[in-house]
Every structure is written in C-alpha cells, then in structure tokens.
Q: What sequence folds into this?
C-alpha cells in the first residue's frame, strides 16, 4: 500500500511540475500588449488575412489562471488525503500488530487455564 502511495505522490509531483511549466508558458495580458492592435494589422493585412488568426472564442478555450488555481487547490487536497491515508495505514498496521499480540496472549491464558 505504501508503494502505491509513493507512486501516487510521484505522479502528483510530476503533474505539479507540468502544471507549473504550463503556467510559465502561458501568455499574459502584458505579453499581448506588445503585439500590434487590430487597427495596426488592418493597415498591413486584409480582412480575409485577419480571419485566419485566432478569435477571442478560440483564446477562451485555453486554460486560465483561475483554471490552474482550481487544479492547484485540488492537488493540495490530494496531497492532504495521501498524507492522511499514510498516517491511517501506519495506525492500522500498528493495530494489527497489537491484535496479533492480544490473540497470542489469549491463547496462552487459555492454555494456562486448561492446564490447571
């Protein structure tokens, strides 16, 4: 079980790294301000040429900072769940050990009582 949890943690770390890279690669409003405006482009290109560019609706399909923040919150929740599960696994293992010891003690007590 611990091995599975380790694998989950490794995958989560990999996902977090990928999300950080995606976030770093995203274009911001400041980045777009350096580009030419529609009026600037109309001076150099025809409307038919401009229709080939991405529209506002096309850009809305990309992940936003809010989308990434939501994914990050979910990732944090998963980390917390994995930590809790790990703690519970240790507690369960300890309970099984205690239970085995109690069963052994009960068997010994029964043998002692039967011997008397």
A:
């Amino acid at each position: 079980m611990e091995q599975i949890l380790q694998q989950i943690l490794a995958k989560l770390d990999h996902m977090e790294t990928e999300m950080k890279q995606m976030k770093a690669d995203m274009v911001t409003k400041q980045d777009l301000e350096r580009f030419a405006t529609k009026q600037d482009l109309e001076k150099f290109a025809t409307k038919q040429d401009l229709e080939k560019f991405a529209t506002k609706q096309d850009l809305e399909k990309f992940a936003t900072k809010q989308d990434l923040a939501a994914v990050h919150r979910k990732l944090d929740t998963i980390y917390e769940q994995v930590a809790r599960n790990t703690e519970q696994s240790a507690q369960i293992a300890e309970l099984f050990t205690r239970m085995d010891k109690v069963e052994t003690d009960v068997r010994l007590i029964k043998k002692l009582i039967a011997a008397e």
